[in-house]
UniProtKB/TrEMBL annotation:
SUPFAM superfamilies: Undecaprenyl diphosphate synthase (SSF64005)
Species for this entry: Diplodia seriata
Alphabetical list of InterPro entries matching this protein: UPP_synth-like, UPP_synth-like_CS, UPP_synth-like_sf
The name this protein goes by in its record: Alkyl transferase
Keyword Transferase belongs to the record: yes
Positions of the UniProt region annotated as Disordered: 167-228
EC numbers, comma separated: 2.5.1.-
Biological process (GO), any one: polyprenol biosynthetic process
Amino acid sequence: MDGNRRYARTHHIETVEGHNLGFEALARILEVCYKSGVKVVTIYAFSIENFKRSKFEVDALMDMAKFKLSQIAEHGDLLDRYGARIQILGQRDLLKPDVIEAMDRAEEMTKGNKRAVLNVCFPYTSRDEITTAIRSTVVDYSKPHPPPLRRPFSEGHIARNIRARNLGTLSEEDSPEAGDDAPDSLDGDKTSDAPVSDDASTNSLTLHESTDGLKEDKVPDNYPDPETITAQTLTDRMFTEGNPPLDLLVRTSGVQRLSDFMLWQCHENTQIVFLDTLWPEFDLWQFLPVLVEWQWRQKKIQSEEKARLRLKVA
């Protein structure tokens, strides 16, 4: 939604009025999107970088956001008609409490709508979104796994009972606690009188070290394996988590750059369109050709994919 300020300068009106006209353009475009079957619309309403603008303009934008969000939520015929709910994406901790309250109210009042989504990026930059996702991943992968449930009986105890039942010669009460490794003779006098040789000490030490080694080998790594981190791991931690892939990105005002918007979500099949028109002037007749071209490209991609599948089968 770029070009509100330039539109205001060109038409010699207040900057705030230019933003207000931009909101009216948004309502028109949302109508077209939802009528066309678009399920998720994401708008770049306010960049974190916009806080560098004059205090007067920032305060005016915040007041407008509160008013418009309340207006949409309380009298949102458009959203209710198409079953669209509002989701606010961005760093809310940068906003004042009254603005956050308006956002929470808008989300709460539209949460019952399940057929479509309106993502409002406010305040947002893609680099901040990616940084937040990475930070969340680091925190999650720095936490140990919860300890396994302790068994009421040891594996050795259970194994001895099973052997006793199968052999029919030992009962649970009569089974020796020492297990199969106990010596044949349990004569206390012979044991106490027998000299302890160096070999016996060595053997005892060797057995002790071997047992410790086995214990160390059995200790599982109780932290998540960082080698399992993939692109999907970060995607699942983005603000847009759960949304379908980004199919079409439209930038108005004639500027050919993404301006830190949805950098992660753009993929090899995302169609990016730059239009030489200011956002308040953007309407159906300028948007319709974009949708038609996108549909044509989608059909072409699907046809090429089917052709590749036929070649693989042949």
